[in-house]
Amino acid sequence: MDEEAPQKGTVTQRAIEEIKAMIAEGRLEPGQRLPTERDLAARLGISRSSMREAIRALTVLGVLEARHGSGIYVTALEAGDLLETFGVVADLSRGPRLVELLEVRRILESTATALAAARITEDQLAAVEKHLAAMNATDDPEEILAHDLAFHREIAAAAGNETMAAMLEGLSSRTFRARVWRGYQEEGAFARTRREHAAIHRALAARDPEAARTAAAAHVGEVEEWLRAQLRA
Amino acid sequence: MDEEAPQKGTVTQRAIEEIKAMIAEGRLEPGQRLPTERDLAARLGISRSSMREAIRALTVLGVLEARHGSGIYVTALEAGDLLETFGVVADLSRGPRLVELLEVRRILESTATALAAARITEDQLAAVEKHLAAMNATDDPEEILAHDLAFHREIAAAAGNETMAAMLEGLSSRTFRARVWRGYQEEGAFARTRREHAAIHRALAARDPEAARTAAAAHVGEVEEWLRAQLRA
DNA sequence: CCACCGGAGTGGTCCGACCACTATGGGTCG
DNA sequence: CGACCCATAGTGGTCGGACCACTCCGGTGG
């Protein structure tokens, strides 16, 4: 009864599944510290090298966190931890795939903005306004970009769904870099963006979900259309 | 001009960024074969062990694919490749996070179903009907589950957005397992699911996007509500 | 011409050593 | 007595080399 020889795939893959299972079954709680690499390797009967590969894999997935000199820990398993990789996906997508990604973003962003309009608090609204004002007060592209991102991040947070907010975060980084490049080519893009942001803010302040949904959809759709046109060229 | 000492983070992390950059900048095309592990390690001045960790990390992200005895290749970078990890996220999410995930699925699934209603071809509709019929013809939970998944997969595919379809695929595996468990407890769940599926199919056949959106939202919302109730208990 | 087979090359695994960092506890100084 | 400092044990990080398992291709013999 020695439970040998499952032997499916690589030993590293097996180790990954093993640790995932430990977490899924609750044998490992969020924040908890794991045994040492050497222990884990011995326990599964594999070498430390292979175990390290497994740990590294789960680290990039945002499931584990290795602290040099201290130990390996399970992350909080919050949406932000796990969906960080989502940004990588967005960064590596190109062509038609990028348009699809933007379409997804349009759907989620418009819904999130609509939810935010219904739920946003005064404090959160003030934060949104702060970034809106800062965005309009400068013409340094880098700074505008930062406040633009923060603007949408605040709104997503106000929607009350952390998972959705984390996904939107990932869907934005690449998108926004593209928009900067866009500003280079198309004059008037900044002014249009400013109007769109103002419309979104108006809808939020008025607590009007439908107007917020429409404004957000138009905002993202604008970029989407431009990207579609670029691909045809 | 020897370009030394960036030295940020671990060498493995640097290697990961390096390869990601190669792909992002187009120096590596989808499907292309990479240099050998030994070459890559030498090129970046790191050990093979560290390079292997980097490769393993990008492998689990669906960016690279290692073929034993042959070489390392860049994947097609299709939505399905990159979003496979999305399922892991869903599997490891629990409690409130799971409800949020389901909320995201409701939004995407309803939109996808609406899009499908407008675009679905006769062939695709036939495939949907096939799974609907098969689902109703058996009472083996496993088989029902399989056809249920396929039912929604066909619809997502008909929506014409591969990225969205891949995300929904990841959002389903965990969800559906939960529903099976649900069937154990709540009588009538199967019958209700059957009605909901029929409503979705009706909307698709009628090419009625709004009806499709509503039916799909209700379908997912049903599970969502049940899960919310479970969490309160 | 084809089937077979061998070797070269590749990823997969393992080992053992050492480095870099952290945390802990005991000793020291104020 | 208390706060500080530092030696040290333990942990993850890196390295190099050895060997195994598999794939692929070209030569060889039928």
UniProtKB/TrEMBL annotation, chains A, B:
Listed GO MF terms: DNA binding; DNA-binding transcription factor activity
Keyword DNA-binding carried by entry: yes
Stored PROSITE patterns: HTH_GNTR
Domain HTH gntR-type: 9-77
Keyword annotations from UniProtKB, A to Z: DNA-binding, Transcription, Transcription regulation
Listed InterPro entries: GntR_C (IPR011711), TF_FadR/GntR_C (IPR008920), Tscrpt_reg_HTH_GntR (IPR000524), WH-like_DNA-bd_sf (IPR036388), WH_DNA-bd_sf (IPR036390)
Name listed for the protein in its UniProt record: GntR family transcriptional regulator
Organism: Streptomyces yokosukanensis
Lineage per the UniProt record: Bacteria, Bacillati, Actinomycetota, Actinomycetes, Kitasatosporales
